[in-house]
Amino acid sequence: MKRIRALDEETVNKIAAGEVIERPASVVKELVENSIDAGAHKVLIEVRDGGKSFIKVTDDGSGIDPDDLPLAFQKHTTSKISGAQDLETIGTLGFRGEALASIASVSEAVEVRTKTRDALSGSYLRIENGKVAETKEVGSPVGTSIVVWNLFSNVPARRKHLKGREAELVHIIDVITELAIIHYDIAFELFSGSRTHFKSARSNSWDDVLSRIFGLKAVAGMAPLQASGRGWRIEGMIGDAFSLRASSDRIFIFVNGRAVSSRSMAGALREAYRNIIPPGKSPIAVLSLEISPDLVDVNVHPAKREIRLLHENEICSAVTQEAALTLSSYAKSVASERLKPSDQITASEETLAQNALQSTLPLDVEEDTALDQALPEREKRSSLKILGQIKRLYIVAESDQGLVLIDQHAAAERIRFEGLEERYREGVIRQELACPVTIELMASEEIMLSSWKEVLDDIGFEISSFGGRSYSVRSVPALGQRTESAESVHDVLKELFLRGKPGPDSSRRDEVLKLLACRGSIKSGKELTLKEMEQLLHDLQECSNPTTCPHGRPVMVILDQSQLERLFGRR
Fold it and tell me: What pTM was estimated for this model as a whole?
C-alpha cells in the first residue's frame, strides 16, 4: 500500500468543487442564492454557450464589505453561521462557505464588483485559476455582480462530460424557474445575448410567476392548499384534474425556501389525484413547507437537494388529505358552475326517449329498472336544462355557460365508485349471498386468486376452496342487489386477473372498486328517460369529484357562446 499523504489545497478545492459544482446550472444556483440571501429585489442572469464560457449574476442586494471580499473566496468562510450550534437554526439558502471557493477553483477566472449601501465606492476582485490576481476600488452601484469565465477549463474531464449548450441552458432555466416561484417577491431575468429566456416581476403572490410558467389557463384551474401541524406549515397551489403532465417535473416542492426533491411529498400529493386523473399522468403543483429548523436536516446532500424531515409521515398525510379536500371543493364548484341552469330553453319529457330498458347492475345478469336501488332516492332533481341524448351516450344540456355534454357512462361510473368507497369506509361493503355459488377456475386463475385474495377479502368477497379447482363464493360487495350468478362473479375475477398482480397499498382496493363501478354503470347505447337523466345529474352534483371518472377521463365538456359562434362563422 502506498504511503498516506495530505493533498495540496488546489486539489482539495477541486474535489470539493466536484461535490458542489456539477454543471453551469450549479454555478447559477449558488450565485443567485447568495443574491437572495443578500436581500436583493432584482437579479439579472446572463449566460453564453449554455453557461460554459460565461456566467454573470448581478443583484441589488446588500453587497460585500471590502475587507470581506478576499475572504469570501476562501474555503469554509461564511457570514451565515458562526459555529456548529447554528446548523440547528439555519435560515439562509447557503451556509457551507464552499460555493465561491469551489467556483473559483474550477474556472479560468472570476470577477467581482460589489458595493455596500454605506460605502463611498465599490470594490473589484479578480481571481484566476483559484488565485487572487487583482483587487482595487471601482465605481459600482449598490449590490454585487459576479462573472465566471470558462467553467471547468482546468478540469477537462468534467468539461468533456457537459452536454450541449441548449441542454445546459435548460438546466439553468429550471434553476431560475424554481427560485422565481418561491421568491416571487424578487424580479428575475435570464438572458443570453439579445434573447430573454425567463423573466418575472416582483409580486405579492404566486400568480404572476405561475402564469408565466404554467400559462394563464392552467393557473385559472389552480386552487390554494394549506395545512399545518407541530412546528410546520404548508402553503401551495395545486392544479385541477385537466392540467396534467406526463412526468412529475411540474410538481415544485420547497422546504424553508429551498427547492428540494421529496419523493414522499410528491407521492403524497399524487395520492390525492389517484382516482381522478389517468394513470401515468401527473398534476401541476407548488408546495412550500415552512418547518422549524430543528425538525429538518438540510445537510444530507452536498447540493442540499435532499432533506430529512422529522415528522414526514404526519406532513405527507396532511398533504394528501388537504389536497383531496381542495380538489373536491374545486371540482364541485366547477361542476356547479357548469351545471347552472339556463332560463332560455325548456325540455319536455315527451321529446325524449322513454321506457328504455335499464342496463344491469354489477355482478348481476338480470335487467333492472332503476339506476341504483342501493343508493338513497333523492326527490330533488338537477335543475339543468336537459335537451336530450346524442348517440345514446352523451346527455345534452344547457347551462348559463353554454352547451354542456355529459358522458352518461363516465358520470354513472363516478357516482357508483364514490358510493362503493363510502360503503367501504362505513364497513358495510360485504353482502352475504342467500345461496353460495360455485365457480371453476383455471390453473393460471388459481395463481392470480392467491395474489388478489387479501384484496378481495377486504373489498367484500368471500371465496374459499371447494375441492379441485372449484371455489365457493359466499359473499360479494354490497351493490344494491343480491346475485346468485356464478358467471357474473367469474367475469369480474377474470377481468381483474388480466390486470396482473395487485399494486401497492390502497391502490389495490381501488382497482377492484373501479372495475365494479365500470361494469355496473350505464353503458353507451342505453336510452334514458328525462327523469333518469335528471337523477343522474343530481347524483353527479353530490359527488366529491364530479368532473372526472375514476379513471381520470372528463365527465363533462362545455362549449361556451364564443366557441359556438366560431363554429358557425359568427366570429
Answer: 0.68
